[in-house]
Task: structure prediction
Amino acid sequence: MVMLMVSVMTFAKDYKTVVFTTTPQMHCENCENKIKGNLRFEKGIKEIQTSVPDQKVTVTYDPAKTTPEKLCKAFEKFGYKARVLKDGEKVEMNKDEKCDLM
Result:
């Protein structure tokens, strides 16, 4: 029993979550896949969730390996600009913007 508790405590990490919005905005599944497919190679990322209706990219990461600032710069590598959303901030979808991936 003690061995089990020690192993569980050893693997527990202090992960953090940050929510971004992007420019250009996400319009479709291809946009989501582009973001997920490129961000997954960044150090410290544990999980990526995207939402086209909410215009949010939620990233769970290991703060010992990366920061929100580094993650913002990572978006630029594949043609996006990202900014961290404040708690409760909503993003309106830009209906005039066109998707290059559709």
Residues 6 and 12 are 10 Å apart (CA to CA).
